[in-house]
Amino acid sequence: xxxxxxxxxxxxxxxxxxxxxxxxxxxxxxxxxxxxxxxxxxxxxxxxxxxxxxxxxxxxxxxxxxxxxxxxxxxxxxxxxxxxxxxxxxxxxxxxxxxxxxxxxxxxxxxxxxxxxxxxxxxxxxxxxxxxxxxxxxxxxxxxxxxxxxxxxxxxxxxxxxxxxxxxxxxxxxxxxxxxxxxxxxxxxxxxxxxxxxxxxxxxxxxxxxxxxxxxxxxxxxxxxxxxxxxxxxxxxxxxxxxxxxxxxxxxxxxxxxxxxxxxxxxxxxxxxxxxxxxxxxxxxxxxxxxxxxxxxxxxxxxxxxxxxxxx
Length: 312
Ligand SMILES: [Fe+2]
Prior knowledge:
Elements: E1 6-9, E2 16-19, H1 29-42, E3 44-47, H2 54-62, E4 75-76, E5 79-87, E6 112-119, E7 127-131, H3 132-137, H4 141-147, E8 151-154, H5 167-179, E9 184-186, E10 188-190, E11 197-199, E12 206-209, H6 214-226, E13 234-237, E14 244-248, E15 252-256, E16 265-272, H7 305-311
Parallel strand pairs: 2-3
Antiparallel strand pairs: 1-2, 3-14, 4-5, 5-16, 6-14, 6-16, 7-13, 7-15, 8-9, 8-12, 10-11
């Protein structure tokens, strides 16, 4: 009997599980269309019990676009597109327990990331995801007005700690700074496919808002970063060996929970090349996809809590 691809939402505002497809095989045209569409709608796709080899994971990813090589993360020498994240008592996890979109220090941050669980801890090691589309939608009108048209400066700041203080380390760092100069990205990014607005700043790589005083920038960024913390915007993914997650890195942030050490957690990741982010001042803008039913409240429904305080 032929298997049918099924899409099952797993959280009201972000995430769907995809079953009925074997990622070891080339994806058929109808399945490819369905996966692409689901990625735009649900932003994070979860595939269970996909026991791929590293090579099969790379082959799966290549069907969705060109893969990139991470400039700082450990990879396999014979398969440079594959990042190997192998954490255990002698190599505790680091740098990923901060909300972020992958590699926004690039001029053209990745379009998507595909992460596969190879070895999972018995307890812990989940990943949290946040829809930055929901994060934008639920801002109040005045804050939306304030951030429209602003640009933010990004930097590979967490990876700076990987370079030594010695002359060799400093030379290597300078080389990377030349290769990855700080990009300016719009704070409100227009998703190039869905046309929806996305909040595109993250505490791992965004360092300041352009044209604002340092103190203003810091406080406004705090408000914006906090949007990823809202549980209604989130999905918490529990990994089992063979779980594969494919997320739209343009509209999603994630946070790897560092609660499993000294247990081992081994993951393999590939990254799809993206394009240069643009805001609503760009032309022509993509047509906006109708917004799906979302369970969060939009700005018009947010109660005015400050007034309530005075009426008490
Ligand atoms: Fe990441």
